[in-house]
Amino acid sequence: MENFPLHVGHVRQLQAAINRVHTLIHFTLLLALLYYRASVLLFDSSKSNLATPVPMLAWALISASELQLSFLWLLRQAYRWRPVSRTVFSGRLPPDDKLPAIDVFICIADPKKEPTVEVMDTVVSAMSLEYPPEKLTVYLSDDAGSPLTLYAIREASSFARSWLPFCSKHGIETRFPGAYFSASAHEKESLLLRSKEFIEEREAIKVIQNEVSDAVGQEQANKMPLLVYVSREKRQNYHHNFKAGALNVLLRVSGIISNAPCILVLDCDMYCNDPTSAKQAMCFYLDPRSSKRLAFVQFPQIFHNISNNDIYDSQLRSIFTTRWRGADGLQGPILSGTGFYIRREALYGTSRQKTDNDLLQLRKCFGPPNLFIASLKQNYKRNFVNGDASVESPQEAQLLASCSYERNTEWGEKASSATVSLNDNMVQNIRWGCGLLEVGLSRFCPLIYGSSRMSILQSMCYAFLAFRSLYSLPILCYATIPQLCLFNGISLYPKVSSPWFAIFAIVYVSILSQHLSEVLFEAGSLRMWWNELRIWMIKSVTAYFFACLDVLMKLIGLKKANFIVTSKVVDEAQVERYKMGVFSFEGDPFFLVILVTLVTLNMVSFTAGLGRMISTNKYDDIFGHVFLSFFILRISYPIIEGMILRRDNGRVPVSVTLISVAISMVILSLGCILLMY
Ligand SMILES: O=c1ccn([C@@H]2O[C@H](COP(=O)(O)OP(=O)(O)O[C@H]3O[C@H](CO)[C@@H](O)[C@H](O)[C@H]3O)[C@@H](O)[C@H]2O)c(=O)[nH]1
Ligand SMILES: [Mn+2]
């Protein structure tokens, strides 16, 4: 049996072939389009096939935008080159006593934004993983150091004493109590098929969930995974490095408690929806054919609060179904920050092996404590007495969690619920966009630093993520410059009768159908495609734009690093609207002003352009522009509705509309200056 593969992966040949052919055709068309733009700009503007003289500045800007969009498009093709699917056979795993131990790291930062009950659900779901309990240790890092969290974790631990046996006895798959007891999950577990005994026990458990009792037998504790609460020291003068800092502390503290060779990292709201995930991950680590250098196994994020009409694309479909699968076919998916199993060894890195015998070097890398240095060489050994973690030296654990620990060591240099409101979505995307762009502009730029260390296709995947915020500049241009031209009766697109027009048309259709086919291939719908397109446009002109500004301000020293935690508190009204597919335009007015200004600009120029087309009866010259504005307005319809038709609290505030209208009037009147050059 031992020689059987524990997992198989196969390339989706047909999909890969279609993708590659499409990439080639689209690439050729893009070259033609860029040639047209450049030749008019550089050589001969009379060849433009335009009805009016070429406004050079506007032409240059729109050409630069198209170049930038083409660059990002090219990077993205790496994800489509070699998509794979994988299957695991956890039944073929060696017996429990041969499995490696796992330490689970969960981070929490702010009990106001991250409801404690949800965090405890995550803790309990991690404890209920289908894995030998004596090989599982769950660590909770509490960055807020909140007494409430400490209290709650005790309660969660005693709840787990009843919950774990209940789950394994009845084969419950949804081991996240919050989701299990919610109505929807309820319906899924078809009660009709269950015995009376099950229903009685379930009711009993429900009571325990509400009112945790300590009466459950102590002997259960020994069959439970160990649960450790860590609150690290934070001081003003020491940079605590947010979540990365918290994970580093857990890495050190766990080193002297359980020191498991494998680590599962979870965000505080990322419960394990599949209790077999730990064994599935082991299928990759323990397969004799797997590379010894396999560092981590990334699971996709699945969200339990997604509505049918997911207007904000909160499920991040493109990331976890299209992109990660594509990167997996190259050299492995990208670490997403949560939901991954990583080898401890991979985190300690090469510095440990190189300097294995040199204590001084080890101390330089990892800090002075002897116990911790010793743990680097030790294998898994859990210090576990009578249900309590017996840390050999509590002082040492405290030292490992102190804020000054990393000073004078190489730490930090070497070891490095779906949002359902527009505002939260924006906050999250600014943070991602800003952090990733900073990497892109640092010496770790994937295209330079990466290309000597990984395949060019893999570097392109990382580069796309790093530079994604740069969508903001071309999309902002696309939403303003053709409109200003249209308003002034000037064209930036070839006449409809010119063959060049066909190139533009085919490029647009090709790019949209590439996206559409991706969505449909993953069992998505037309509506999902439309929603994704819309939220991408919204993000580009807002979140990505702010991310670029953030990076700029950090570069010139006007802003410090920060981490605005994504709120997990639900606003009932917003959730209701999200479920009905209605946008909530509450929150930061800056976002809204940009969106509403752009929409107003498009409304005005569309009307002016349409009027001109009808009055002059000439459709050939400006059709491209009129169509672009129409398309933008059509996809922005929810914003127009929010400005004009809606009366509820989630509408666009009237003040925002007024300011935006004023700004767009200013832009329109300044537009002729742009067109003079
Ligand atoms: O100073 C901090 C800040 C955050 N966190 C924790 O980090 C996690 C992620 O924060 P969250 O606000 O939930 O970020 P999201 O945008 O929802 O998460 C995504 O984006 C993060 C990076 O921006 C990644 O770290 C996450 O894994 C990824 O799921 C949460 O458990 C936080 O409690 C800390 O422990 N300390
Ligand atoms: Mn989160």
From TrEMBL:
Q: Which UniProt keywords apply?
A: Cell wall biogenesis/degradation, Glycosyltransferase, Membrane, Transferase, Transmembrane, Transmembrane helix
Keyword Cell wall biogenesis/degradation (UniProt): yes
Q: Which Pfam families match?
A: Cellulose_synt (PF03552)
Q: InterPro entries annotated for this entry?
A: Cellulose_synth, Nucleotide-diphossugar_trans
Specify which residues bind UDP-alpha-D-glucose according to the UniProt entry for this protein.
Answer: 113-114, 143
Q: Which residues cross the membrane?
A: 17-36, 56-75, 461-481, 501-521, 533-553, 590-610, 622-640, 652-676
How does the record say this protein sits in the membrane? Multi-pass membrane protein
Q: Which residues bind Mn(2+)?
A: 243, 267
Any one cellular-component term (Gene Ontology): membrane
Q: Where in the cell is it found?
A: Endomembrane system
Which GO MF term does the entry hold, naming one?
cellulose synthase (UDP-forming) activity
Where's it mainly located?
membrane
Recorded hits in Gene3D superfamilies, A to Z, give:
Spore Coat Polysaccharide Biosynthesis Protein SpsA, Chain A (3.90.550.10)
GO BP annotations, alphabetical order: cell wall organization; cellulose biosynthetic process
User: Do the record's keywords include Lipid metabolism?
Assistant: no
Against PANTHER family, the record matches this protein to:
X-BOX TRANSCRIPTION FACTOR-RELATED (PTHR13301)
Q: What is this protein called?
A: Cellulose synthase-like protein G2
Native source species: Nelumbo nucifera (Sacred lotus)
